[in-house]
């Protein structure tokens, strides 16, 4: 029977000793286990993701409008993971409002291109415009937003009337300004149609630069509708493009191989009977002419919409252009169809050798009168004509007339006058002597 050993003496820890260490040295003892509350807090902190900026505001915006309320849901489609994509409309008095549009307008949501492609064109346009407006006003998620630098600049308060003297391509025309002296070379202004792109004509002298599909039809459509017609032009923006890449925009610093083009909307005062239902349905007013030429081209399938980046200048009537382009796509008109346009080969007799040119002589001598189109004005009395029936182009001089030549006084005035009178017009030429075309009649002056 022995005695119980005495209890060990407990020595108080010196001040400054914490967590099992003394004077900075490890004690070797394991730390105390975490409590249940501590483990729960640690697990929650590791998985919680902080909300995006204005995320809570967007959730509150949606809850106050649709939570516990009757709404209408329109299923637009599904994505690649079979997630349903749709639109939600909630009642607001006697009207139904689109929740997506409301979120974008208030700067609480962004426009998403891939899912917006499932929507109707009109709804898609509204969403895109709402986002642009929210960016301009820097609402909520767009606070501090700085628009990117673009190569386009707006043109303000430039509106004029004039007569179309030349169609350069399916999206470019030359208009003689009524404010300038009649027949003056300075009166002609080159106007590119805003926000559209017509098929390229190419270069007929180069085998590797052939015209695009429906390029000739696009230009001919404008020629028959516009040449000699009075139009109203609203200049909208200018854009610096590369001379090598056509209409592709380039950085401003590469100015050596660039040029600046002016873009605008061109309007006809009255529709042509051949236009039919392709003209704009918007009624004309005292300030807005009736027919937008760009819209007319798009509705016939002779042009495409230009793909503008955000904050790039565009047509003031861009929504109407998008709607016309959508109608042409659905109807498969023009460039949207699977059919190829009819092929028309024109032999330029001014560029071939004499033997080949003589092969056309019997056909030209067969008829005394020929219907032609004036393709180019070399001087006041020399022109280039295309005779569609004979599939050839010829050089032509007026009989008994000589206008001032190059660098002679009034040479440019004579050319400007003839351009305004007969360029790209349907004309009739008479052969009074063999190989001598001496008379020209102009249709529809």
TrEMBL record:
Residues 12-144, 158-338 form the TNase-like domain. Residues 1-53, 195-215 are annotated as: Disordered. InterPro entries: SNase_OB-fold_sf (IPR035437), Staphylococal_nuclease_OB-fold (IPR016071). Residues 204-215 have a biased composition (Basic and acidic residues). Residues 35-47 have a biased composition (Polar residues). Transmembrane segments: none annotated. GO terms for molecular function: endonuclease activity; hydrolase activity. It comes from the Eukaryota. Residues 16-25 have a biased composition (Low complexity). PANTHER family: EBNA2 BINDING PROTEIN P100, STAPHYLOCOCCAL NUCLEASE DOMAIN-CONTAINING PROTEIN 1. This is TNase-like domain-containing protein. It comes from Aegilops tauschii subsp. strangulata.
């Amino acid at each position: 029977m022995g005695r119980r050993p005495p209890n060990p003496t407990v020595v108080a820890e010196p001040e400054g000793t914490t967590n099992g260490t003394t004077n900075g040295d490890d004690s070797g003892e394991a730390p105390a286990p975490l409590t249940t509350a501590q483990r729960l807090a640690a697990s929650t902190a590791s998985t919680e993701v902080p909300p995006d900026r204005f995320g809570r505001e967007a959730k509150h915006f949606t809850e106050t409008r649709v939570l516990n309320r009757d709404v209408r849901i329109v299923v637009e489609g599904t994505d690649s993971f079979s997630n349903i994509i749709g639109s939600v409309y909630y009642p607001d008095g006697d009207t139904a409002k689109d929740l997506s549009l409301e979120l974008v307008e208030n700067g609480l949501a962004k426009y998403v291109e891939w899912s917006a492609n499932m929507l109707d064109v009109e709804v898609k346009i509204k969403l895109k415009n709402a986002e642009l407006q929210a960016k301009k006003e820097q609402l909520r998620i767009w606070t501090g937003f700085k628009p990117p630098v673009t190569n386009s600049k707006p043109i303000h308060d430039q509106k004029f009337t004039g007569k179309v003297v030349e169609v350069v391509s399916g999206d470019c025309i030359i208009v003689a300004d009524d404010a300038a002296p009649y027949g003056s070379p300075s009166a002609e202004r080159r106007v590119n149609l805003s926000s559209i792109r017509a098929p390229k004509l190419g270069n007929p002298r180069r085998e590797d630069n052939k015209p695009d599909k429906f390029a000739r039809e696009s230009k001919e459509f404008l020629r028959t509708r516009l040449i000699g017609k009075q139009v109203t032009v609203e200049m909208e923006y200018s854009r610096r493009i590369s001379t090598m890449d056509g209409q592709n925009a380039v950085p401003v610093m590469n100015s050596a191989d660039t040029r600046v083009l002016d873009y605008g909307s061109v309007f006809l005062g009255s529709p042509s009977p051949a236009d039919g239902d392709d003209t704009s349905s918007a009624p004309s007013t005292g300030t807005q002419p009736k027919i937008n030429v760009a819209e007319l081209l798009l509705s016939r399938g002779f042009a495409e919409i230009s793909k503008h980046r955000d904050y790039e200048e565009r047509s003031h009537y861009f929504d109407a252009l998008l709607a016309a382009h959508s109608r042409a796509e659905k109807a498969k008109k023009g460039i949207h169809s699977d059919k190829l346009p009819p092929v028309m080969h024109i032999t330029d007799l001014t560029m071939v050798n004499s033997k080949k040119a003589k092969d056309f002589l019997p056909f030209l001598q067969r008829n005394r009168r020929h219907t032609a189109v004036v393709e180019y004005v070399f001087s006041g009395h020399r022109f280039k004509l295309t005779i569609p029936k004979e599939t050839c182009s010829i050089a032509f001089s007026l009989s008994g007339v000589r206008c001032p030549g190059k660098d002679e006084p009034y040479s440019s005035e004579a050319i400007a006058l003839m351009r305004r009178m007969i360029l790209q017009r349907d004309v009739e030429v008479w052969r009074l002597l063999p190989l001598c075309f001496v008379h020209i009649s102009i249709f529809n002056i």
